[in-house]
Amino acid sequence: MNSRQPLIVVVDPDADRATSLASRLDRRGYHVVRRSSGTDALRCVTEYRPDLVLSVVEVLDIDRPELIHSIQEISPSTQVLLIPGQGSSPPLPADDGETVGGDEVVRVVDELFDRTPGATF
User: Fold this and answer.
1) Residue 33, SS3?
2) What is the distance between the alpha carbons of residues 23 and 85, in angstroms, rounded to a whole number?
3) What are the structural domain ranges in the chain?
4) Are 36 and 18 spatial neighbours (Cβ–Cβ below 8 Å)?
5) Tens of pLDDT along 38-92?
6) Can you tell me whether residue 53 is helix, strand or coil?
7) Is 79 left (phi over 0), alpha (psi -120 to 50) or beta?
């Protein structure tokens, strides 16, 4: 078993929502870094080469296709998962990234890293 904790960058301008998601992921054994803007997330991707960037669809300073393209250009091995923000309609299909709804986020992250749901590592 790989003992390295996957590094996840959570990008959300809503600090409470970002903290809530980061706490849930941290309890699951992931190393989580929060960023409030796409620009800050790209700096973080450049510096740390995370395993995953979780971004709300509504990041205001960079549009979604540009954010995804830039992440993939900086760090091709970094996965990108888009999540709807609070009050969003059901998840939107996206050709340029995967989108899931609120309660599914931790389950999907566990699946991406082949972890058993509910277990801590």
Assistant:
1) strand
2) 17
3) 7-112
4) yes
5) 999 999 999 999 999 999 887 779 988 999 999 999 999 999 998 877 544 444 3
6) strand
7) beta
The answer to whether residue 35 scores a pLDDT higher than 80 is yes
Look at domain 7-112 and name its CATH class.
alpha beta
Q: Which of 14, 56, 25, 18 is nearest to 120 (CA)?
A: 25
Strands 7-11 and 31-35 turn out to be parallel
Q: With b meaning 16 or more CB within 10 Å and e meaning fewer, what string describes 56-86?
A: bbbbeebebeebbebbbeebeebbbbbbbee
Q: Which two tokens stand for residue 77?
A: 């091995």
Distance CA 29, CA 105 (A): 15
